[in-house]
Amino acid sequence: MHAHFEQHVYHRHSHDTYSFGLTESGAQAFTCRGAARTSATGMVMAFNPDEPHDGHSAVEHGFTYRMVHIGPDLIAGVLADIAEHPAGLPLFAEPVLDDPVLFDALRRVHGTLREGNRLAQDEALVDAVRALVHRGATRPPGVAQRPAVRAEVRRAREYLDAAFAEDVSADELSTVAGCSRFALHRGFVAAYGFAPSDYQRQLRLRAARRLLDTGRTPAETAAEAGFADQSHLTRWFKRYYGITPSVYQYAK
């Protein structure tokens, strides 16, 4: 993505990839890991997979930024060729990095993706991942540590993963989990950073993106992904991704 926003507010969400935002002008404010953050001109936002965050302009004239999403499998493939790197995927300790070297490396990745040159893309990706790991990532156990997920909360998540398009009630989910509705809600938020309903909606939106990629119309996508109708899908798609399903599909 390469976009300018002034009024748009991102709903709290996460990505199933590593996600890096390059603020080119203005400033973006967001919350992540329980604290308020700001990415100003020249800074890099670094989100680990499934790390909840939101976002909005921190200044009146808005902000312009580029966003690059890199799948964990791609990063693992690059790191497998770096002998000095320990086994396992990296974690980013800070959501905002003020590092011109990282900024330039990720901007090169974004540029090659727009140009469509596969060899240049691969080379830029290797350079960017090396820079990210050595300059911005850390893997000590305490960096992104969360309490152990209780069995009942894990059961609820697994159920939502399998039945995200179904109209699941709180009573049904708490029965599957084997605990009270209140205990499930509190435990789910503590473990994953979302209420169960927000997590379910995000699963539906990720499914919608996959369906749109296959050529399904927005109306067909809405029905298959569990949304009430196309307008319902469009409203939430724009709040999460900043564009409508039709624009997303056209850009692909």
UniProtKB/TrEMBL annotation:
Keywords: DNA-binding, Transcription, Transcription regulation. The keyword Cytoplasm does not apply. One of its GO terms (molecular function) is sequence-specific DNA binding. It holds the Pfam family AraC_binding. Residues 154-251 form the HTH araC/xylS-type domain. It comes from the Bacteria. InterPro entries: AraC-bd, AraC_XylS_family_regulators, Homeodomain-like_sf, HTH-like, HTH_AraC. This is Transcriptional regulator. It comes from Amycolatopsis taiwanensis.
